Request: fold
Amino acid sequence: MRFQAISVGIEVPTSYFSGTVHSVFRQACNLSIEPHKLLTLLPSEEGNVPQGIRLNASSQLAFLDLLRVGQPVACRGGILRIDGVLSIDLRNADLWHIDLTALPIDLRRPDHMLSWAAAWFELRASHHTIGLPEIMHAVSFPGEQCGSSVVPSAALEWSTRTIPALLRAIRDLRLDDAMTAIGSVIGRGSGLTPSGDDFLVGYLAGLWCGTESSPPRVRFLTALGSELFQAARRTNDISCAYLRSAAEGHVSEPLATLAQQLYRGDNLVLLRTAAQAALHIGHTSGTDGVLGLLLGCLAWQNPPPH
Reply:
């Protein structure tokens, strides 16, 4: 079967690479092209991701019917081929990228604060029953139930101690303390991408939106990314790839679009639409990532908002 790539993320090489099929799902296929480096094939209806290749194919295309783990992958001259089964022309694909550093979110600005509050309201109203937002909700309202059981005390302790410690370490540019807090988050939670990893992806996005081109902050985030590059090996391959992308300021289109609307601050209807799109990613990935983004936006506010 032959397809045309509609768009490719900024991390996708388009001329020469080789590897194998890493994992196959109905609506996505991951290709391993080097250790801890994945590319993701997606149908046209799915949003862009930094390492993604969107095809001119509808969601009716089932990768599970075409591909299997371990098949050889090779790209030569802009044509990606998978074991003689699939070929994808990358040569005329649009390059997708949203630069988070160009979206300086400043919560001292009334429009930015209003947008942030609207996104927070959408998160709290999303009726999450699992994941980190539910844990945060339980902290605000002690004794509430998480689904059919009380939120575990270890999760509450993590929420009340680790998140504030991470905020303080980032605010004060303390790399070792930040990595200590991050180390307790990586790989935490269940799911294809654990809740802790999804939170960190969003959190890093919020930090990149708050650098304001400040050299100390940029240097800090660069150093944090180098540390995280190694620490991310403690989680699964898919989460590791997402974390390493986020450490460089590259996140999925729904999350980046929400950051855009937070920055623009001029249309609450579009803001809420973007928030809903970001919240509905996966089972808990959306709510965990949005929570991370919104808290990441707080880290370098001076003075920090109430």
About this structure: Residues 112 and 278 are 18 Å apart (CA to CA). Confidence is low (pLDDT under 50) at residues 138-152.
